[in-house]
Amino acid sequence: MLNVSWQLVHDKDIMFYQLKWKETTVLYSTKQGEAAFLRKFNPILLHQIHSSTIVDLDRDHKRIGDGMVTRRKNYALGIKVADCLPVYLFNAERICIIHCGWRSIIRGIAKQASTVMRNYKYILGASIGVCCYEVREDLVESFSEKYENAVVSDNQRYFLDLKAAVVKDLGERYLLASLDLCTKCHSEYFYSYRRGDKKRNYAVILNNM
Q: pTM for this structure?
């Protein structure tokens, strides 16, 4: 990873994480002022279905899937996340955001994004960490076929590392930064499905050109 990092921003009643890279800005909301966060950045949002579908907003306006891509400038693309991993990709021509839960990863959404984007860099948002993401043995078996490095066993308990799986698909050399906070551990910042929260966090990417 290059020497870039996420910053915690306080903007009036809103608190969010932000990272800027050249003309691209990536954002991750917190519990503080999430409604105002949405009003401020006004992202286009998807109806998410835990799929590998990436919607090209320049051609398709159905907005059903788990990723979006556009060439248009001054667009803000957003997804809802609880414990899943948001991934922000960009190159000289496009921006893209994908929602990576275990189902979408297994179905190939990260590989699909790499094909759509090409010559990209990417950033990882916050997600549930391997510290907290305990999964069933049957899921481990199907996941291990493609992502053995993403499965951690501890005294006959199994834990999943979503970020390790995505990095394998997208390539470590293209990774700029990661927001290495567990959404379940850090209740002061984030909502977590595993913790029983009903609300969601928001991940947003925008091109400032």
A: 0.96
